[in-house]
């Protein structure tokens, strides 16, 4: 049996209204496709992804110690929440990335350092704001970022860097944010591929499945999932990849737990209709 499944709306990549309806799915409205989703599939929207970076200011840091930059980021996110509520009335939730606590390469000096208490305070404020507009706020776990000597994201010769980190990436910190925010209109969004990039920080391969499962220790805290396959053991898995569920080396036990959460699940990828049919059969058989 299939759970409730959604997919990111992207007609250029082949995710059209006809395909979504054919497979009885809903959509997540993602950055860059808001206008086409509004024109073609607004009634299929189940979730809306908030912006995490803007060309004019770089990565949004709603935990920034610079008060002007923090307020600018909050206003931009709140503006997108209003847009989501006014234009996608069937959407139930919004997804937000964590905030950087140290991002030395940030384009704006005000966005380079974050504070945990400001992070939690902002989550509460955004949860309030989203609730006022009929939407649940969910916090997505971010990547662990692997960077080479030239400062480029790389899996081949990359290492985890303390200079590019977010709040809410590790399972402990992600779950702690849920407990510390303690808001009735706030839950977590699990990204299985992002979780794998963090699991790669454990050199012992035998530990990595347990790291993934630790993200699922509190199912009541999870309100949404970005569900991807990923390479848990191969070095390429240090980078965020959107494989079909069942592809890669995530243990089947993890996928079964995700399926059994009983919440909407987003397939955050599309590799053609034939691959989707194979993926749906895999999920059905879990």
Largest beta sheet: what is the strand line-up? 1-2-3-6-8-12-13-14
The parts where pLDDT drops under 50 for at least 5 residues are: none
What structural class do the secondary elements suggest? alpha/beta
CATH architecture name: Alpha-Beta Barrel
Mean of pLDDT: 94
- Specify the overall morphology: globular
Kindly give the count of domains. 1
* Number of β-strand runs: 14
CATH fold label:
TIM Barrel
According to CATH, what is the class?
A: Alpha Beta
Radius of gyration: 18 Å
Helix content: 25-40%
The DSSP helix count reads 9
Properties at a glance:
286 residues, two-stranded antiparallel sheet, alpha/beta, TIM Barrel
How would you describe this structure to a colleague?
- With 286 residues, the protein is an alpha/beta fold.
- The protein has a single domain (5-285), classed as TIM Barrel (Alpha-Beta Barrel).
- It is 35% helix and 19% strand.
- The protein has 9 helices and 14 strands.
- It has helices at 17-22, 34-41, 67-87, 116-132, 171-181, 192-199, 208-214, 252-259, 273-285; strands spanning 5-8, 26-29, 45-49, 53-54, 58-59, 93-97, 100-103, 136-140, 146-147, 159-160, 164-166, 186-191, 222-227, 265-267.
- Strands 1-2-3-6-8-12-13-14 form an 8-stranded parallel beta barrel, surrounded by 4 helices. The protein has a two-stranded antiparallel sheet with strand order 4-5.
- The protein is globular and about 50 Å long.
């Amino acid at each position: 049996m299939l759970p409730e499944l959604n997919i990111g709306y992207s007609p250029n990549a082949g995710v059209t209204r006809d395909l979504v309806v054919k497979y009885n799915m809903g959509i997540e409205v993602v950055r860059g496709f808001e206008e086409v989703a509004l024109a073609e599939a607004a009634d299929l929207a189940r979730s809306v992804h908030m912006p995490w970076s803007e060309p004019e200011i770089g990565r949004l840091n709603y935990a920034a110690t610079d008060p002007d930059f923090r307020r600018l980021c909050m206003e931009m996110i709140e503006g997108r929440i209003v847009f989501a509520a006014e234009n996608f009335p069937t959407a139930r939730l919004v997804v937000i990335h964590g905030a950087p606590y140290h991002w030395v390469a940030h384009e704006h000096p005000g966005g380079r350092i974050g504070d945990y208490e400001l992070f939690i305070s902002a989550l509460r404020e955004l949860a309030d704001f989203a609730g006022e507009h009929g939407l649940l706020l969910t916090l997505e776990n971010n990547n662990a970022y692997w960077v080479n000597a030239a400062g480029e994201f790389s899996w081949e010769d990359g290492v985890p860097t303390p200079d590019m980190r977010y709040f809410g990436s590790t399972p402990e910190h992600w779950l702690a944010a849920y407990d510390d925010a303690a808001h009735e209109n706030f839950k977590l969004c699990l990204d299985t591929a992002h979780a794998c990039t963090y699991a790669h920080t454990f050199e012992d391969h035998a530990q990595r499945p347990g790291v993934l499962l630790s993200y699922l220790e509190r199912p009541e805290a999870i309100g949404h999932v970005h569900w991807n396959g990923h390479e848990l053991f191969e070095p390429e898995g240090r980078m965020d990849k959107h494989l079909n569920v069942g592809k890669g080396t995530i243990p089947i036990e993890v996928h079964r737990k995700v399926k059994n959460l009983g919440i909407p699940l987003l397939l955050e990828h599309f590799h053609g209709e034939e691959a989707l049919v194979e993926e749906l059969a895999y999920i059905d058989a879990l």
